[in-house]
Automatic annotation (TrEMBL):
The keyword Thylakoid does not apply. The lineage of its organism: Bacteria, Pseudomonadati, Pseudomonadota, Gammaproteobacteria, Moraxellales. This is SAM-dependent methyltransferase. One of its GO terms (biological process) is methylation. Pfam families: Methyltransf_11. It comes from Acinetobacter amyesii. One of its GO terms (molecular function) is S-adenosylmethionine-dependent methyltransferase activity. InterPro entries: Diverse_substrate_MTase, Methyltransf_11, SAM-dependent_MTases_sf. Belongs to the methyltransferase superfamily. Keywords: Methyltransferase, Transferase. Residues 39-127 form the Methyltransferase type domain. It comes from the Bacteria.
Length: 244
C-alpha cells in the first residue's frame, strides 16, 4: 500500500470532496447489522464521518498518521495507523468494510484475504470513489481536461488507471450487488478548485520534477477573468458493493 498523501494532509482534509448522504444510503440499505464498520484507507475521515451515525463502533485505519490526525473527533470512531493488508480486528467481527478513494493503492490479494478474515458471514464490502471532476462551464472543463490528460500525462502513478476505468477493472472476488449511478455536485470558487488540484498526486509528481514550471497557468488566467464566480461541478461516484 502506497502512502502519497501524508504531505499536505491539512489541505487534503480541506479540499477533497465529501461523500453525500445518498452515497452512504446506497450502501447501508444492504447492511442490516450495524455493530462494527471498518473504514480502511480512511485518510482524514472523508467517508468515516458519514458512517459514524449508523454504527455502534467504527474503526478507521490509514497508513498515514498525518492524515488520521486531520480526521474529525467522533465518539464512536477509533482511528488507528495500520495498513490495509494487516488490520487489528478479530476474525469475523465486522459488518461492513468501506474503502473510499484508496483501493487502487492496495495489494489486492493481501487486502481481500483480510476482508474474508474479518467480515462476518453475509457481511459487506463497499468500494467507493469518484472520477474526474467535470465542470458545466465548457472552457473551464476543457482546461481541466488539458491539465489532466496532456500536461500531467506520464506523471500519474500507474494505479490511477483504476479510477479512470471507474474501478470496473479491479479484482472484486465477491457476490456483487447492483448500484445506482450517483454524482457529487458542488459549486466552488476558484480557490477551492485550485486547492483541490493541489491534492492530485499527478500534479505533485510534476511539481517535484519541474519546480520552476507552472502547470496550472492557464487555469489561473481563466480565473483572473472570472473573479468571484462560482462554478457548477460534479464528480461521478464510483461504487461497487459485495458480500462474502
Amino acid at each position: 500500500m502506497k502512502d502519497l498523501f501524508s504531505t499536505g494532509s491539512a489541505l487534503y482534509q480541506q479540499a477533497r470532496p465529501s461523500y453525500s448522504a445518498e452515497v452512504v444510503d446506497s450502501i447501508l440499505q444492504h447492511v442490516a447489522l450495524r455493530e462494527l464498520a471498518w473504514d480502511c484507507g480512511a485518510g482524514s475521515g472523508q467517508f468515516t464521518k458519514g458512517l459514524a451515525p449508523y454504527f455502534q463502533q467504527v474503526l478507521a485505519t490509514d497508513l498515514s498518521t498525518e492524515q488520521l490526525a486531520q480526521a474529525p473527533n467522533l465518539d464512536n470512531v477509533r482511528y488507528e495507523q495500520a495498513s490495509a493488508e494487516h488490520c487489528p480486528l478479530a476474525d469475523h467481527s465486522v459488518d461492513l468494510i468501506t474503502v473510499a478513494q484508496a483501493i487502487h493503492w492496495f495489494d489486492f490479494t493481501a487486502f481481500y484475504a483480510e476482508v474474508r478474515r474479518v467480515l462476518k458471514p453475509q457481511g459487506h464490502i463497499a468500494i467507493v470513489g469518484y472520477g474526474l471532476i467535470q465542470f458545466e462551464h465548457a472552457e473551464l472543463n476543457q482546461l481541466l481536461h488539458d491539465l489532466y490528460f496532456v500536461t500531467l500525462k506520464g506523471y500519474w502513478d500507474a494505479e490511477r488507471r483504476y479510477i479512470d476505468e471507474e474501478y470496473r477493472s479491479i479484482p472484486f472476488p465477491f457476490q456483487e450487488l447492483a448500484t445506482p449511478q450517483l454524482f457529487l455536485n458542488y459549486r466552488w470558487r476558484s480557490q477551492q478548485i485550485l486547492d483541490y488540484l493541489q491534492t492530485w498526486s499527478g500534479l505533485k509528481h510534476y511539481q517535484q520534477q519541474h519546480p520552476t514550471l507552472q502547470p496550472c497557468a492557464a487555469l489561473h488566467d481563466f480565473f483572473s477573468r472570472h473573479p468571484q464566480q462560482e462554478f457548477a461541478l460534479s464528480f461521478p461516484v464510483l461504487l461497487r458493493i459485495g458480500t462474502v
